[in-house]
Write a structure and sequence with these properties.
This protein is of the alpha/beta class and 243 residues long. It has a single domain, classed as TIM Barrel. Helix content is 37%, strand content 28%. Strands 1-4-5-6-7-10-11-12 form an eight-stranded parallel β-barrel, surrounded by six helices. It starts with a strand and ends with a helix.
């Protein structure tokens, strides 16, 4: 299981939000590239880069910061936030992203997701952000009537790089991941699953590893930035070794 540090961008800075609420923001750095390099230096196998402004506005808004990060790191990165057209997906990949994450546009239009997968097979991930199992869009502000498991089932045969499942109620709360929700997701799709939201301890990582079928990765943000969990400890927990 991969441990994937999150680098969330807002106004060119590295920040974290609690439960996706822009009014509950903590700023960590004005140098996103330095943050990304540090995670790479400490052993991260991959980074999760999110343009929060792009997610809220509907189009990419932190291109300069993303460009600089992707220029200086050597590990792969998955990039999301405001990618709502094939042109935006292509631009993210051309910028250097290994994988482009789509969410809102794919939830609203299944044809868009199918077209993106056909154009970039294996390089598109589907981001599913849910509260009580129901999907939200547009930077977590619009509630839909679509269940995350229903959409995951429908795209099971798409050539996706991954499905990234975030429980919004747990995001930034450090209270553990949504294990029942993740198990339900894993049971209905053959697409590799990445867990996000609430992961705050080695115990949480062990719990994710114990799921059957297992998840392929865990995105961790606040726990790493606040020092509650070190990247080294998280990597060892995922590998089943001791520090």
């Amino acid at each position: 299981m991969e441990i994937i540090p999150a680098v969330d961008l807002r106004g060119g800075r590295v920040v974290r939000l609690i439960q996706g609420d822009p009014s509950r923001e903590t700023r960590y750095s004005q140098d996103p590239a330095a943050v990304a390099r540090e995670w790479e230096r400490r052993g991260a196998p991959r980074l999760h880069l999110v343009d929060l402004d792009g997610a809220l506005l509907g189009s990419p808004a932190n291109q300069q910061a993303l460009r600089e990060i992707l220029r200086v790191i050597r590990i792969p990165a998955q990039v999301g936030g405001g990618l709502r057209s094939l042109e935006a997906v292509r631009a993210a990949l051309d910028l250097g992203a290994a994988v482009a994450i789509v969410g809102t546009a794919a939830i609203r239009d299944a044809g868009f997701l199918e077209a993106a997968c056909a154009a970039f097979p294996g390089r598109v991930a589907l981001g599913l952000d849910a509260r009580a199992g129901m999907l939200l869009t547009s930077g977590w502000v619009e509630v839909t009537v679509i269940r995350a498991t229903d959409l995951a089932r429908r795209v099971s045969d798409f050539p996706l790089a991954a499905i990234i499942y975030t429980d919004i109620q747990r995001d930034g709360m450090l209270e553990g991941p949504d294990l029942p929700g993740l198990a339900a997701m894993a049971a209905v799709t053959r697409v590799p699953l990445i867990a996000s939201g609430g992961i705050g301890s080695e115990r949480d990582i062990h719990a994710l590893k114990a799921l059957a079928p297992p998840v392929g990765g865990a995105i961790i943000g606040k726990a790493l930035y606040d020092g509650r969990l070190t990247l080294e400890a998280a990597l060892h927990a995922a590998a089943g070794t001791s520090c």
